């Protein structure tokens, strides 16, 4: 049955307010997911470039003095101790410091960098009013 021509302009739009909110929420989730992926990629690429730079700096010194082994510097161990102290306080923000961590501390640090709860990523629009 055809609708009357006068009523047609007064109809509600086909997309409801709920559908608009849903689409907006999905777009925000998609953007937050992309941001988290970008952060993870940046973190991984930084670590790869650091390890690549360390291997490049170690190979020329090893080729020059291949007959005489170099003793390990004590400063490295003390810096690892400093990193562990900072880790216990939660102060490590630099990837270079975190790359010196070993074992469970390194896993914990990287897990904190990569696994953020969604409630920390998605900030409600009306947070200041509905708090």
Automatic annotation (TrEMBL):
It comes from Opuntia streptacantha (Prickly pear cactus). Residues 51-96 are annotated as: Disordered. One of its GO terms (biological process) is snRNA import into nucleus. It comes from the Eukaryota. GO terms for cellular component: cytoplasm; nucleus. This is Uncharacterized protein. Residues 51-69 have a biased composition (Low complexity).
């Amino acid at each position: 049955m055809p609708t009357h021509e006068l009523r047609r302009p007064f109809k509600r739009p086909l997309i409801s307010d709920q559908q608009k909110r849903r689409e907006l929420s999905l777009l925000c989730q998609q953007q937050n997911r992309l941001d988290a992926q970008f952060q993870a990629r940046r973190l991984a690429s930084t670590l790869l470039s650091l390890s690549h730079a360390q291997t490049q700096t170690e190979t020329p010194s090893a080729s020059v003095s291949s007959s005489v082994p170099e003793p390990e510097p004590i400063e490295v161990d003390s810096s690892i101790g400093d990193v562990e102290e900072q880790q216990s306080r939660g102060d490590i923000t630099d990837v270079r410091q975190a790359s010196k961590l070993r074992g469970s501390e390194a896993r914990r640090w990287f897990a904190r960098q990569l696994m953020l709860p969604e409630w920390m990523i998605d900030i409600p629009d009306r947070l200041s009013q509905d708090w």
